[in-house]
Fold this sequence. Notes:
The complex is a heterodimer. By secondary structure, chain A is an alpha+beta fold. Chain A has 15 helices and 29 strands. By secondary structure, chain B is of the alpha+beta class. In chain B, the strands form three sheets. Chain B has a four-stranded mixed beta sheet, with no helix packed on it. In chain B, strands 1-3-2 form a three-stranded antiparallel beta sheet. Chain B is elongated and about 95 Å long. Chains A and B meet through strand 3 and strand 15 of A and helix 4, helix 7 and helix 8 of B.
Amino acid sequence: MVGLDFGTSTTSVASPRGVVPIGTDESWMPSVVGYGDVSIVAGEEALELDPSQLVRSIKRAITDNRTFVRVDTPTGIRDVRADDLIVALLREAADRAAARGQDLSEGRAVQLGCPAMWDGRQRTRLVELARRAGLAVSLASLVDEPVAAGIAWLARREVRTPQRLLVFDMGGGTLDIAVLNVGKDVSVLAALGVAEAGDALDELIAEDLDNALGASGVDVDSLSAPRRARGRLRDAAREAKIGLSTMEEHVVVLPRRLFGISDLWYTREQLNAVFAPQLDRAELYVEAALRAAQLTGHVPGTASDILRTPFEELAAAVDVVLLSGGMSQVPYVAQRLRELFPLPTAIEVAATPPESAVVLGLANAARYGRINMYRPAFDILLEWNHGRESRTVYHAYTPLVETRQIARGGDIRYERNGTELSLPPTGKGKLKVVSHSGHRVRATLGVRSLDGFPVALNEEKFEFAIYPNGRISLTDGSGTHDGHIADWNLSGT
Amino acid sequence: MTERSRGKALAGRFAGDPVAAVCHVLRRAAAPLTATDIKQALQDGGVAKADVDRVWPRVQRKLAAHDEVLVAGRTYRWSVVPKAVTATQALELLGEARIPAGDKALLVDVVRAALTHQPENGKHAEDSSDAEDSGDAEDEARRRQSAIDAVRALAELASEAEELAVNEARPEALIHRLRARVKRSGLEPIDRAGDETTFDRRRHKPIDGAIRDGARVLVVRPGYVWKAPTEEVLIAKAVVEE
C-alpha cells in the first residue's frame, strides 16, 4: 500500500511505515512545474526557473476546471495544457518514490488523495492523468483528503464503538471540513471546502505589524525605503506566525537603520485578534457541515427541522475534532474549536506533523471500507432506444445536499426532472447504475432493482430524487415508485 | 472430454468457487495472462460476462494473496513455487521434472541470488525479497531525511543569529528569539547566562575544578534538555562558575 498526496503546494508519498521522503531536501516535493530550456521540469528544479516559466499550485487547474495555463516556453509565451504539466509532476513524484523503494506503477494498492469537493469529472481527470504518468490507479484508488486525515488518526488506535469525527483541515489554500462516522468503515456524512486561504493570515499580521509600528511612532510610508520596509514586515509576519506557535510572545527584530527602532514585541493575543474574523467564518462552515451531516444517514427530516436543531446538540454528537493541515499548528485554531465544542469532545491532531495527515492516511486507506453518503460514487443513467440514447440522471460524486438548500428550508434532496433532461414525451426506457468503484450498488425501486428498472418515458411527469438518507423516488408515466439504496457504495475495501 | 463438456465443467466450477475456476484457467495457460485474457477464457468456458464482471474485484484480491499465483505488472501466472522460497528449497524444486519453464527461471534466480549475496550477520538469503529491498531504500531515505532535518535546524539557527547580530538586536530580544527557535525542536533551556543560582550537579557543570552542591554559582552558559515525545534527554548541563 502506497499513498500519494498531490497537494496544492506540496506532493508527498507514504507507505504504512511512514512518509517516504521524495524531496531533494524536504520530505515532500514542491508541486511546482515549468518549462526548462529543453523539457518540462517538476519539483525543486522548477523553482529555479524564471517565475514566468513555472506554474505553482497546478492542482488548482483541476479544481477550477481550466484546460490551459499560460507559461513562458522555449517557443515563447503560450497557453499550454495543464494536463501535460500535471502528468510531468506526477511522473516525477512516482520516479522519486520508485528510487526510494516504492513503485507506484505496479499492481500495488496506490491510493491517491483528492479534495472532497471534486465532482466526478474532476476525479476522472486526475485518475486519467495519474495513469498517463504510469501510476496503477483507478477511480476506486481515490480517497477524499479529509477521509484520509481521519484514517491517519484511526490507524493509530483501536476504535471499539463507532465514533463521529469532524476533520478541520486548514491548509495554505483552502479550508476543508468533513464529518465522518468511523468504525470498521469510514463513512463521509458531509464534506465542504472553501477558499479560506490560511496564507491570508501572513498578510494580516504584516498589516498589524505596520499598525503597531505606527503606534510606536514609526510611519512606514515616511521611511526612506518604504517598499523594502514592507518586504521586511511580510517576512517578519511569517516568522511571527511560526514563533507564536510555541511562544506566547515574539520579538520582531528590525534593522534600526531602516526603521529607526530595533524591535517590536508581538503577542499571541494580537495574532489571535487578526485571525479571529477568519475563524468566525470557519465556525459557520463547521456548523453548515454538521447540519448537512444530520441529513445524511438515517435521520429523517426536512431542512426546517435541521435548521431548528440547536448548534449545541449538533456539536455534542461529535466525539473528536481532528486538526489537519499546516495552519492547524497555530494554537488559536485548537483554542477556538475547544471553545466551540462541549468538553467531552476531544480536540486532537490527525497526525504529527498535521500536514502529513493526508498522505499517512492514504497509505493506510486500503485497510478500511469507505462509504461516501454525501457524494455517492455511482452514475445513474436512463437509457432508451436499445441503449442508443441515454441521459445521466445522477452524476457520480454530485453532492446530495447543497449548503444553500439547508438555508432555504423545505425538503432536501438531489432531483432531476424530464424537462431538465430533455426526455422524449413517450416511450420505454430503463435505468442503469454504473459503479465507479467495482462494487455493486444494491438499490431498489418498488420490488425491483434500481439497475434495469423499466421507465415509462414522459418528459412532463418524469422526476427522480435521491434523499440524503438513502431514499430514492421516481415518478414516470406509470406513477410514483419509492425505493432505497441498501448500502451506500463502498469506494474501497 | 469434449470442448462443450469442458466448458460446462468450468462454468460449474465458477458457480461453486470463482477463484478456483480462475486458478484452473491459469494452471492450463502456457503463458502469463492479463485480466482481460482470464475473463475471456471464463466466457469461452460458458460463464456469463455479467457474472465474471460482478465477482472480478473479489477474485482479483484473492489472486493477489494466493500462494500459487504470481502477479507481475498486469499479468497473472500460475506458479508451483511458493512465494517465499528459500535457496535450498529452490535447489530441491529444480531437481523435480514437472517444474514449468517460467518457474525454473525463477528458481535459478533465487539460487543465483543466494550464491552472489553472502548472508550477513546470520541473515538468510530468503530475507532478501523485494519487500526487503524496498524497505532498505525507504529506510535509507528516512535516515537521510532525519539527518537533513537536524542539520537544517542548525543552519536556520546560525542564519537567524547572524541576522540578529547584524541588526544589532538587544540581548533580551536576541535571547528570546534563539530560545524560541530551539524550543520548536523540543529544546528547553536550563538557567540563563549571567544569572546566579545554587549549584546542582545533576543540572550544572563547573567551568573548572569541582563545586560542592548548594554553593552559589554564576551561570556562564545555559544547558539544554531535549523533550522528545517519549523521553527527556539532557543534551548539555549549564556551565557555571563559583
